[in-house]
Amino acid sequence: MDNTSYIALSRQITLQRELDISANNLANMNTTGYKFEELLINAEPGAPAYNTPIRTPANFAFDNGVGRNFTQGTMNQTGAPLDVALTSEGTFFVVTTPSGTAYTRDGSFTLSGDGTLMTQQGYVVQGDGGAIVLDPKKGEPTISADGIISQMSQGQTERVGRLNVVRIANMSDLSKNGDSTFSLTSNAAALPATNASVRQGFLEASNVNAMSEVTNLVRINRAYASVASVIEQNSQLNRTAVERLGRVA
């Protein structure tokens, strides 16, 4: 293959990756707290397929990783007492997974058999003193704007615990785990979000714009077809050149 084909192929590879990411965004447009993603592409100088007659490096399309947009999603009222939404960007609930501590914006919580507050995936939601355990016999809990969870006991309001909400200063320190959770990839620490506000009975919707993603899918498919056409035309030129050289010989 020559330089043109190598460069075009590098672009096709990134377009395939873009297609996967955009399709995943659409698939998660109804996932609570999901943040849409996009591929970061750079030009990567590299050695050409041959040095003559091209003496300058060839610029290939380079997959520079996935970027995530952590802007706030809209608030959807559910009325469910264990549904909680964070109203400030950069803040996360703390959960414990089999792999360790993780962070999530998905506040669609539930209770285990013993009353432990958990995510829908079965991860324990952390409070200021560890796991939060509710007593089903005491009725529905109330959750204040600062994350304090209370239940009624003999006519008195009893504090059960407080949701552990933290702030991540640099979003690039987060690595996606799946199940709407993230983990820290560096030595950076999550800081207590003392001024964070939560809303009981609400869930944060995905921030995916469906129309933009559909438009993006069309753009990617057209670009892929265009690059494929360039490869085919270049291949045809090479075949024609070889045939003509063969006749001259």
UniProtKB/TrEMBL annotation:
The keyword Oxidoreductase does not apply. InterPro entries: Flag_bb_rod_N, Flagellar_basal_body_rod_CS, Flagellar_FlgE/F/G, Flg_bb/hook_C_dom, FlgE/F/G-like, FlgF, LlgE_F_G-like_D1. Residues 6-35 form the Flagellar basal body rod protein N-terminal domain. Residues 199-242 form the Flagellar basal-body/hook protein C-terminal domain. It is found in: Bacterial flagellum basal body. GO terms for biological process: bacterial-type flagellum-dependent swarming motility. Residues 92-150 form the Flagellar hook protein FlgE/F/G-like D1 domain. Keywords: Bacterial flagellum. Pfam families: Flg_bb_rod (PF00460), Flg_bbr_C (PF06429), LlgE_F_G_D1 (PF22692). It comes from the Bacteria. One of its GO terms (cellular component) is bacterial-type flagellum basal body, rod. Belongs to the flagella basal body rod proteins family. The basal body constitutes a major portion of the flagellar organelle and consists of five rings (E,L,P,S, and M) mounted on a central rod. The rod consists of about 26 subunits of FlgG in the distal portion, and FlgB, FlgC and FlgF are thought to build up the proximal portion of the rod with about 6 subunits each. This is Flagellar basal-body rod protein FlgF.
